[in-house]
């Protein structure tokens, strides 16, 4: 079996409805844009697909770099092709999600060839996992508490806040949410890289007081040293290496510094399923957890295959709260059963 064609289909994606916001200083939900479906076709008539919101960028990279590299290759030689992507990155500096798209499509092919869902090819660890409600940014503490109540009523087992990016205001919110839900609900906080070290320390003290499970990406991840200093000054566990480039290469430096209790892994930002599993095994070697970042079909497979992960991340973008379709009444996400990666959430949404 060989790769016969690599295609990019551009699709018009409407603006999010209703729109939502992230913290102050970041754009909110996507406006109308051009998405892209990567399709890798094989000589056996089996296609692997993956989707990105960055369709124009993907099409350019496929035309200039990837098609020539991939056509004629064995689609099951994922390790070799993953290595080749890093070789090409030396010249191109690919956006990190491009690694993930190619690797996802190749895993999709492998699963379809085997007639198995990808998590079974990886080695299934579980058949279901609890989901946490991962909020966007809401207007007030009162609204956050209302959203939290709705999430718990809908079955979500835990709540993660994306807040305003104001260390003092966010600290007050985090303490108020803990008081509101009581001691038995898992809570997490994501700073979306909004702080410098002094403000990250201030907020970290409040999170430790409120016994949050983790403190995620409070600062940009350019400086491992800054995270080491933060870990030395706060007691709340840090979740690190979410958006840093370099897959397991870079994650290893965060672990070596001593700042990590949790590390991020994902199909999108960590080199696809291949890179995500490398990070998970690296973390496991040090007794750390590798938490899967983001929603979607590929990440659900990762959640089923990685032993040292805790939750599936389910984004909450509206009030009233609408629960993600893959989450059941008990707040659980179940193992996919379709061969390959299965239907992609983004394409199902675009197709209505």
Q: Structural class of the helices, strands and pairings? A: alpha/beta
Main beta sheet strand tally, sense and closure: 9 strands, mixed
Query: Gap between N and C termini, in Å?
Result: 34 Å
Hey, roughly how much beta strand do the residues contain? 15-25%
Form type: globular
Number of strands: 12
- Rounded to an integer in angstroms, the radius of gyration calculated over CA atoms is 20 Å
Mean pLDDT, as a whole number?
Answer: 96
Low-confidence stretches: none
Number of helices: 12
Order of helix and strand elements from N to C terminus: EEEHHHHEHEHEHEHEHEHEHEEH
Proportion in helices: 40-55%
Outline the structure in words.
The protein has 352 residues and is α/β, with parallel strands linked by helices. 41% of the residues lie in helices and 19% in strands. The chain has helices at residues 55-70, 78-92, 96-114, 118-122, 141-153, 167-181, 197-209, 224-233, 247-257, 272-285, 297-305, 345-350, and strands at residues 3-13, 33-42, 47-52, 128-135, 158-162, 186-190, 214-216, 238-240, 262-265, 289-292, 312-316, 332-334. β9 (262-265), α10 and β10 (289-292) form a beta-alpha-beta unit.
What are the salient characteristics of this protein?
352 residues; alpha/beta; 3-stranded antiparallel beta sheet; 12 strands
Summarize the structure.
This protein has 352 residues and is of the alpha/beta class.
């Amino acid at each position: 079996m060989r790769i016969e064609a690599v295609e990019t289909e551009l699709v018009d994606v409407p603006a999010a409805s209703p729109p939502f916001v992230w913290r102050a200083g970041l754009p909110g939900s996507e406006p109308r844009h051009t998405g892209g479906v990567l399709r890798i076709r094989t000589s056996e008539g089996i296609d692997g697909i993956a989707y990105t919101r960055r369709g124009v960028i993907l099409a350019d990279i496929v035309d200039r770099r990837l098609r020539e590299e991939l056509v004629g290759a064995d689609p099951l030689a994922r390790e070799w092709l993953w290595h080749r992507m890093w070789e090409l990155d030396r010249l191109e500096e690919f956006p990190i999600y491009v690694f993930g798209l190619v690797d996802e499509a190749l895993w999709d092919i492998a699963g379809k060839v085997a007639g198995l869902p990808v998590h079974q090819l990886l080695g299934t660890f579980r058949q279901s996992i609890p989901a946490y409600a991962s909020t966007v940014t809401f207007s007030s503490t009162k609204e956050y508490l209302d959203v939290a109540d709705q999430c718990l009523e809908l079955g979500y087992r835990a709540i993660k806040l994306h807040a305003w990016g104001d260390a003092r205001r966010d600290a007050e919110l985090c303490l108020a949410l803990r008081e509101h839900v009581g001691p038995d609900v898992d809570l997490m906080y994501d700073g979306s890289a909004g702080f410098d070290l002094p403000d990250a320390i201030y907020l970290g003290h409040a999170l430790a007081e409120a016994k949050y499970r983790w403190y995620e990406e409070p600062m940009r991840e350019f400086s491992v040293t800054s995270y080491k200093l933060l870990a030395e000054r706060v007691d709340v566990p840090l979740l690190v290496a979410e958006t840093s480039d370099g897959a397991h290469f870079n994650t290893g430096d965060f672990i070596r510094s001593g700042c990590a209790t949790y590390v991020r892994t994902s199909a999108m930002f960590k080199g696809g399923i291949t890179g995500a599993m490398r990070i998970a095994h690296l973390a496991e070697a040090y007794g750390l957890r590798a938490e899967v970042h983001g929603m979607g079909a590929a990440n659900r497979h990762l959640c089923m295959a990685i032993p040292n992960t805790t939750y599936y991340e389910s984004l909450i973008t509206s009030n009233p709260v609408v629960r993600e379709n893959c989450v059941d009444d008990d707040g659980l996400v179940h193992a996919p059963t379709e061969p390959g990666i299965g239907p992609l959430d983004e394409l199902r949404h675009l197709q209505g």
